[in-house]
Amino acid sequence: MGENVDISALRIRRDANSPAKSSRRNRGWIIIAVFLVLASLAGYIFVVTGAADPEIGVSIVSRSGNNRAQSMLTASGYVVAQREAAVASKGTGRLVYLGVEEGDRVTQGQIIARLEDSDVLASLGSARANLAVVRADSSEATANLKRQQALKDQNLTSQANLDAAKTAYQKVIANIGLAAASIREAEVAVENTVIRAPFNGTVLTKNADVGEIVAPFAASTNSRGAVVTIADMSSLEVEADVSESNITLVKLSQPCEIMLDAYPDQRYRGYVKKIVPTADRSKATVMVKVAFDSLDGKVLPEMSTKVQFLSEARPANEYSDARMLTIPTSSILQRDRRTYVLLINSGVIEERDVKLGQPLHDRTVVLDGLQQGDQVVTEPTANLKAGTKIRVKR
Predict the structure, then answer these.
(1) For residue 341, with 0-12 CB atoms within 10 Å meaning exposed, 13-18 middle and 19 or more buried, which class applies?
(2) In sequence order, which ranges of the chain are alpha helices (DSSP H)?
(3) 35 & 60 share domain
(4) pLDDT digits 0-9 by tens, 219-229
(5) Would you put residue 19 in left (φ > 0), alpha (ψ -120 to 50) or beta?
(6) CA-based nearest residue to 290, from 252, 239, 251, 249
(7) Considering its fold, how many domains does the chain have in total?
């Protein structure tokens, strides 16, 4: 066979100085070095961005009251005039005078508009002239009856002539009655051209203008029905929708606090006047009418409101415009006889000295140093100092 071959020279060398093992060792060190660089970079980013821009909680300086009375339930509603009327004319005609505008106050019986009345005035004049003629006839008929009665007493005329005189007299009297009725009818027609306020109130809307045809119930498409809409502003109440599941918390005469969405810093005292004995199927609510203890010019029909149904009445001084500015008690700091808070101004911490009043539960009254809408740190920590940039928690 062939000669023997020595293959010992072909073995893979595994000693420590082999080129393959050295290459793997170098790659490991490179990976470790890259990891350390990335970790250092992440730590730097955290220090620069996270530590310099900590997230903190803030609170808005707002107005509060000493709410000793517990709110059992809150419901939304609208201010509604319980006495409101769309004032229309009883007659048909062209509107020639309108003496009021939106916001004007009117008194019961005040003339607020007039329709064209030349035709009905002519009818009234004719009826009065007819009455004058009939009354003249009545004078003649009365004199003739007296004459015939005197002649009959002397047997100088017949009974037939006396009866004829009586009939003529009675006919004239009947004509006087008809003429007087015609006058009253014409006077009513004239009065129907005058539109008066049915009660004391305020004009809410103007629905017609001078020159337009006005008719009862807008009898045609070219005519107007109501001329104005007025409301008795002393009859304003809140109609609130209370969930069926909570209606058991509401009682007649229960004290309430009313807040107009337009004036969130003011509260009005009220009470439950009526619980309407039916439910709204579509909303699963029951209407509750809440009356105001007192009203002012800010309360207007159709304003949206929120009503708090209370366990007991609150003191009158808690419903005024001068409700107290408050901040969370946890935001107050004291140091070196100073009382201050950390105020946020354009994303930067600022120290602000404050003068405090009485505590209200978890808030405290601020007498000086802050104004409504300011943002203060709710729970300041030791590392928060003036000039620190912050991010507000969302």
Answers:
(1) buried
(2) 19-45, 118-153, 159-191
(3) no
(4) 555 567 789 99
(5) alpha
(6) 239
(7) 5
